[in-house]
């Protein structure tokens, strides 16, 4: 009996640690009237080819009980970079390992474009696109158990698609990330 109890305690302690180890919130502000929780940024896709570098990152957030995803897509190149805009009609899709898709709705009504800036020191054009998209209550259930294989942004001017891999050893950030597992690891932090 003692042996079973020891094994249970070891497994339970390990299980408890595994459930909370990635729940260090970047923002965790709860007051009488509002609640804001934001997990730190994770790299989902990185591409370095020729003179062009691109980086896609996610942050999962919950504001007053509404779960959302902030993505940031950064491009850097010595060549010209095409503009890309998102508006209130833009949709984001997550394609899962089981073939299902999860659609997210833009939470910002104004158009947002990746305006170009110039880095005179390194002689690079830089474009940054930020998006804030909300889940509906019923559409994130599969994300608790299924890996995400593809992230797609659909707007009036075209689509952007990103393949998510099991692991990225980022050359830019110098850390490792597990893009396919992002939601499986992050959703329990919000109690979903």
Structural description of this entry:
The protein has two helices and 15 strands. Strands 1, 2, 3, 4, 5, 7, 8, 10, 11, 12 and 13 form an eleven-stranded antiparallel sheet that branches. The protein has a two-stranded antiparallel ribbon with strand order 6-9. A two-stranded antiparallel ribbon has the order 14-15. It starts with a helix and ends in a 6-residue tail after the last helix. It has helices spanning 2-20, 182-186, and strands at residues 27-30, 35-38, 42-49, 52-63, 66-77, 85-86, 91-96, 101-106, 112-113, 116-119, 124-134, 148-155, 158-163, 168-169, 176-177. Residues 1-20 have low confidence and may be disordered. The protein is mainly beta and 192 residues long. The chain is 12% helix and 46% strand.
């Amino acid at each position: 009996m003692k042996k079973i109890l020891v094994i249970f305690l070891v497994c339970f302690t390990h299980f408890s640690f595994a459930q909370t180890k990635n729940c260090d919130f970047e923002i965790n502000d709860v007051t009488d009237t509002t609640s804001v929780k934001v997990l730190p940024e994770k790299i989902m896709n990185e591409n370095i080819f020729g003179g062009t570098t691109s980086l896609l990152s996610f942050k999962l957030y919950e504001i007053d009980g509404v779960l959302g995803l902030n993505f940031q897509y950064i491009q850097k190149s010595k060549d010209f970079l095409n503009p890309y805009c998102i508006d209130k009609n833009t949709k984001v899709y997550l394609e899962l390992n089981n073939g299902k898709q999860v659609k997210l709705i833009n939470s910002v009504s104004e158009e947002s474009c990746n305006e170009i800036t110039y880095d005179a020191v390194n002689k690079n054009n830089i474009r940054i696109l930020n998006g804030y998209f909300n889940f509906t209550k019923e559409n994130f259930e599969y994300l608790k158990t299924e890996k995400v294989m593809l992230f797609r942004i659909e707007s009036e001017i075209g689509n952007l698609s990103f393949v998510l891999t099991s692991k990225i050893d980022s050359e830019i950030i110098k850390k490792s990330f597990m893009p396919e597992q992002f939601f499986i690891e992050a959703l329990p932090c919000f109690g979903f």
